[in-house]
Write a structure and sequence with these properties.
Bound molecules: nickel (II) ion
Shape: elongated
CATH superfamily: 6-pyruvoyl tetrahydropterin synthase/QueD
Number of strands: 4
Strand order of the largest sheet: 1-2-3-4
Number of domains: 1
CATH architecture: 2-Layer Sandwich
CATH class: Alpha Beta
Radius of gyration: 16 Å
Largest sheet: 4 strands, antiparallel
Length: 136
Amino acid sequence: MYITRRERFCSAHRLINNNLSEDDNQKLFGKCYNLHGHNYQLFVTVTGSISTISGFVIDIKDLKQIINNKIIKKLDHQNINEVDFMQDKITTTENLCVAIWQELVEPIRQLGGELYKIEIRETENNYFEYFGETLN
Ligand code: NI
């Protein structure tokens, strides 16, 4: 069984690699080197078995609360480049998926579920999925 909670957040960011010169950043990231914003949608998918006591995989209101406290409160109407779990990272949606996974995997385990997927829709046409696979 898989259950998914959607949350939305509006955030600003700029793509910058601090190891590159201003010129190289401009060339690499173009317009995205400038501060700009997106209306993001975050989908958190959890898997597990159905409890015979509650009939739930996990209580979706607990899931909602964790996502809000750990992720949405920090990101919504903020600059992603300044958010604690994105410090020293290039604020691409790829890196955002991985960072959100890392923030949520343990708290969701404590609720009795397994985090299955983090999906972020950055625009109508771009979405990103992370299943916790090893990177690099
Ligand atoms: Ni952007």
